[in-house]
From TrEMBL:
InterPro entries in UniProt: CRISPR-assoc_prot_TM1791 (IPR010172), RAMP_III_fam (IPR005537)
Protein name in UniProt: Crispr-associated ramp protein, Cmr6 family
Organism domain of life: Bacteria
Classification lineage: Bacteria, Pseudomonadati, Aquificota, Aquificia, Aquificales
Segment forming the signal sequence: none
Keyword entries, A-Z: Antiviral defense
Domain CRISPR type III-associated protein residue range list: 97-281
Keyword presence, Glycoprotein: no
GO BP of this protein: defense response to virus
Pfam families referenced in this protein's UniProt entry, alphabetically: RAMPs
Record keyword Iron-sulfur present: no
PANTHER family on file: CRISPR SYSTEM CMR SUBUNIT CMR6
Length: 283
């Protein structure tokens, strides 16, 4: 080992012990039926190659195989989820639980060899809602509320917030709570953690002109739709939301944080496909 990098065995000096970073042959066996980390399954085990006939699989067939490997035993993941919820309750001064009223998909456009993705916890592999997404939806809703849901005024008011200060009578509340390029917001929003590993359901997108999207050919009626499967969190799954310095929100807007967030989810939704009813949560 030199300069923090693993050396090839051929570079070892005589008499030195070689370190095998990855065991040879069949020393590594992936127990697919007992795999409990969905992120590892979706990102690290994608069976594009069929060992039986030595042929490559296309994306759709590889996706079918990898979706079959969704964890069947969630006990290990549930233990981590329970501990994370306990930890975040100790940090937060305001928390509450909301349930999905429709399917939820966050991170659909993330980079993936499977064409589409889903936001999963980096270490434990369960679906969650990032704090940045929660902040974005809540902030957008409060701005819309301020401009009476006029989308033309929305962009102008948002620009004022980005260039304004905390003492401005018109936009000061937004700067204090959410921050801008010059100031850090006082409201701390934590990731929303599920109460347990949520049920997952498959859904499809059905682009009607695949050659137009993939090969830049004209969108003609002789092209066959190619369904694109993706995973979603099912309706009726509960997520715990956590906030620190929540009194700042009450003082700035004189409204209830939980009620406003529910209104934001019902009006805007969160994640992808909100235009067709995805991403709605309620108390």
């Amino acid at each position: 080992m030199s300069n923090g990098k693993y050396q090839n065995k051929s570079n070892q000096q005589p008499g030195q012990d070689a370190i095998l970073v990855i065991p040879k042959g069949n020393d590594i066996k992936l127990s697919l039926n007992s795999a409990s980390n969905l992120k590892l399954i979706l990102e690290k085990y994608i069976p594009f190659y069929n060992m039986q006939n030595n042929r490559m699989l296309d994306v759709s067939k590889a996706k079918d195989k990898v979706y079959e490997l969704k964890p069947k035993n969630f006990q290990e993941a549930d233990n981590y989820i329970k501990k994370l919820n306990e930890r975040q309750r100790q940090i937060a001064d305001k928390s509450f639980t909301l349930a999905t009223k429709s399917r939820l998909i966050v991170g659909l456009g993330g980079g993936s060899a499977l064409e589409v993705s889903i936001k999963l916890h980096f270490i434990y592999g369960f679906p969650y809602i990032p704090s940045s997404a929660i902040k974005g939806v809540l902030r957008a809703y409060k701005i819309l509320e301020k401009v009476n849901f006029d989308f033309e005024k929305y962009s102008k008011f948002e620009k004022k917030i980005e260039s304004g200060n905390r003492e401005d009578t018109e936009i000061g509340a937004f700067v204090r709570v959410f921050g801008n390029q010059q100031y850090k917001g006082d409201l701390i929003i934590l990731d929303a953690i599920p109460e347990h590993f949520p049920r997952l359901e498959e859904d499809i997108m059905n682009p009607h002109y695949p050659k137009y999207y993939n090969d830049k050919e004209p969108p003609t009626d002789d092209q066959n739709p190619v369904p694109i499967k993706f995973l979603t969190v099912a309706k009726g799954e509960k997520f715990n939301f956590y906030f620190k310095n929540s009194q700042v929100y009450k003082e700035a807007f004189e409204t209830d944080l939980k009620e406003d967030l529910i209104e934001a989810f019902n009006y805007l939704g969160i994640g992808a496909k909100t235009g067709i009813g995805y991403g709605v949560l309620d108390g």
